[in-house]
Specification:
It is built from one helix and 49 strands. By secondary structure, it is an all-beta fold. Strands 29, 31, 32, 34, 35 and 36 form a six-stranded mixed sheet that branches. The termini are far apart.
């Protein structure tokens, strides 16, 4: 010992040393002030100081053990230190290869534990004693506890007896001092629950529940479990795997929430009943609710002739996000989708319990990259004798607008639009109108149509009938019909009782000219229709023709002499003063003019001319009357 070390000993131990304890290679001293001083080897941290801890360097100078104050008893073991505080708690430091420190830190290793820590769960201790690799203490109630190496049964229990396995938890060894030395066990066994697979479960999932006990349990009674909460299971036997491990395979049922597992009936070898609530893993989660339906965010919902992008929004916490385009098969979703054409996008996902969401669908219908076809018209190119109403059609089903020009230029959406799919084409006689059209679908311009040429020939045909009408005769009435045309195609005629055409009553004109005869009594009209090779169609109506005996109109005076009513003729013309006159003559007067009247009331209201033809007479009052 050097002079300095000797001086330090004298200073430290000048007074107050109440207890000395010697270990295998270190020494402890307890002073009256409750402090602990130590020197010697510190390779396992047995001195309770950091100096040379974990090394083979000596510590010849006494140093105060950290933390250890208020100490009432000390004991030095092979390579560990045990100290009893005046409050009845136990503190240890040093080597813990066999659990001799009564804690898990570095248990079963050669790692040092230089800082004294309290042995949990021990109070009311009155004495401590450290062995080579184990520790024994006595409590105020005279019971004895031991922990550490038990190869020879030195801690007084059967746990790990005959092995070098550590025993880190203090176990009761003896009952009251003075009684026979009987090994006792009054601690109930505990169990930790684990699940395979380890997850949230849905209905139909088979899960293996494993109970791992902290000590061997008896075969009888058989350990049992029960389940309550989101699922229920009556008390049921488990299957033994080893003396400390039992299992049960449970099929999860309907429900949502927490299911709780409880232990029942199991006992250890000493007959202590297992703790009802497992020390860990007592609950598992039942989840039969699918995750929320995914949603979609397209880059645009407007019509476009470009690709669009679509983001699929899956609910938070969902697993296995998937999508498919149309029916091409689901694949993992990894990010924004680029969509080049109209399609249906389907999306789904799972949750931790493998519940599958409802499949969401987005129908993309706003992409249009195909222009419409060129429009067609009816009637098309040809020669016409009148204005034509042209009907426009297009084989494309998405046409929104059709525009046209009639000057031969290519149309676009600044030109005139064909409203309701029709337009009117007209021109003077001899004109040719060039029609072009183009269709749009809203965003795409289609192909321009071929030119449609409309040539107008409005000269037409001339129909001549003689006489033209206002004929009254008791004899057959003949009308001569002549069609004047350089390219007559066909002509037809019909006799009818009124001016309305009857499309089912036409007769073909077999000659040109032709005489049409009325040989039955009655009033009739003559209708003539002719068509040339240029599709000019002319229809004329002539009449009235009346065959048979005529009678006066209603209201005519009955005392008028019949011979004064028949065959009166009238003539229409201008007199010497250029005044319109109606001149009548009767046969009795041998063609002489019986009377002349100025008759503006028989002017034609349309032409403002006198009517041509007809039979009139003068009544006894001097008024002009017309035969019916």
């Amino acid at each position: 010992m050097t002079n300095g070390q000797k001086a330090e000993f004298e200073r430290v131990f000048a007074s107050g040393v109440e207890m000395i304890s010697v270990g295998a290679s270190h020494t402890l001293a307890l002073k009256s002030d409750g402090t602990v001083w130590a020197w010697g080897a510190n390779d396992s941290g047995q001195l309770g100081v950091a100096t040379n801890s974990g090394t083979s360097n000596p510590n010849p100078t006494p140093a105060q053990a950290a933390v250890l104050t208020g100490i009432s008893h000390i004991s030095a073991g092979g390579s560990h230190t045990v100290a009893l505080k005046s409050d009845g708690t136990v503190w240890t430091c040093g080597w813990n290869s066999c659990g001799q420190l009564g804690k898990a830190t570095n248990s079963g290793t050669n790692n040092p534990n230089p800082t004294p820590t309290q042995v949990t769960g021990l109070t009311g201790v009155s004495q401590v004693s450290a062995g080579q690799q184990h520790t024994v203490i006595q409590k105020n109630d005279k019971t004895v506890y031991g922990w550490g190496r038990n190869y020879f049964g030195e801690i007084g229990t059967t746990t790990n007896n005959g092995t070098n396995n550590p025993n880190i938890t203090p176990a009761s060894v003896l009952d009251n001092i003075g009684q026979p030395f009987t090994l006792i066990d009054t601690t109930s066994p505990t169990a930790a629950i684990t699940y395979t697979p380890s997850a949230t479960y849905k209905s139909g999932t088979a899960v293996t529940i494993t109970a791992t006990f902290d000590e061997p349990v008896a075969n009888t009674p058989i350990p049992q479990i029960s389940i309550s909460g989101a699922n229920t299971l009556a008390t049921t036997n488990m299957t033994k795997t080893s003396s400390t491990v039992y299992t049960y395979t449970y099929t999860v049922g309907a429900g949502d929430g927490i299911a709780t597992v409880a232990m029942a009936t199991a006992q250890d070898m000493a007959g202590n009943i297992v703790t009802v609530a497992p020390t860990s893993g007592a609950t598992f989660t039942v989840d039969n609710t699918p995750p929320a339906v995914p949603t979609f965010t397209p880059s645009t919902a407007d019509w476009t002739n470009q690709d669009i992008t679509v983001v699929i929004n899956y609910p938070a916490g969902s697993l296995a996000p998937e999508y498919q385009i149309d029916l091409t098969g689901f694949q993992a979703y990894t990010g924004v989708l680029t969509i080049p054409a109209n399609c249906s996008i389907h999306a789904k996902c799972k949750d931790e319990a493998n519940n599958v969401s409802t499949t969401a669908t987005l129908s993309v219908i706003n992409i249009d990259k195909i222009p419409p076809n060129a429009p067609t018209v009816s009637p098309g190119t040809g020669t016409y004798n009148a204005e034509q109403e042209v009907t426009v059609s297009n084989t494309s089903g998405d046409v929104a607008h059709t525009y046209y020009t009639i000057d031969g230029t290519d149309p676009d959406n600044t030109d005139t639009e064909a409203i309701d799919g029709t337009l009117n084409i007209d021109g003077f006689d001899g004109d040719t109108v060039t029609l072009k059209l183009v269709s749009y679908d809203g965003i795409n311009k289609g192909a321009i149509s071929i030119p449609y040429l409309y040539t107008f020939n409005k000269t037409g045909l001339i129909i001549t009938a003689d006489p033209t009408g206002r004929i009254k005769s008791p004899d057959n009435i003949n009308v001569n019909i002549t069609i004047t045309s350089d390219n007559l195609n066909n002509w037809q005629y019909q006799g009818d009782a009124d001016t309305t055409l009857d499309e089912n009553n036409w007769e073909e004109g077999d000659t040109n000219p032709k005489t049409v005869e009325q040989n039955t009594d009655g009033t009739w009209y003559l209708h003539v229709r002719a068509e040339d090779d240029d599709e000019n169609i002319i229809t004329q109506t002539y009449g009235t023709y009346k065959k048979g005996t005529v009678s006066p109109i209603d209201g005519y005076a009955g005392d008028t002499y019949a011979d004064e009513r028949k065959y009166f003729k009238y003539y229409v013309g201008l007199d010497a003063n250029n005044i319109g006159r109606v001149m009548l003559a009767a046969p009795k007067d041998v063609g002489g003019v019986k009377q002349i009247f100025t008759r503006n009331d028989i002017l034609d209201p349309v032409t403002n001319r006198f009517k041509v033809g007809g039979v009139y007479f003068i009544d006894r009052e001097g008024k002009i009357q017309e035969y019916d």
